[in-house]
Specification:
By secondary structure, the protein is of the alpha+beta class. The protein contains two helices and three strands, in the order E-E-E-H-H. It has one domain. It has a three-stranded antiparallel sheet.
């Protein structure tokens, strides 16, 4: 594996009633972290990765998350 990658992504209910995208990142050592994206960030991530659905994100480099997270 060349570095951390998006291992999975799924739509889930957010605490405010809006849908969120929960993205799992798998590290080279096997560790897994999760990042929760609001709808706007999720939309940008899908566009940046040329993904039509959340499952299309699997295997994409985790750095794509850096481009959509608020700074």
């Amino acid at each position: 594996m060349p570095g951390p990658v998006i291992d999975d992504a799924r739509v889930a209910p957010g605490h405010d009633g809006e849908a969120v995208l929960v993205v799992q990142v798998r590290h080279e050592n096997g560790g897994v972290d999760s990042v929760t994206l609001d709808a706007d960030c999720a939309r940008r991530l899908l566009e940046n990765c040329d993904a039509q659905v959340a499952s299309d994100l699997r295997g994409k480099p985790w750095q794509h998350l850096l481009d959509v997270l608020p700074r």
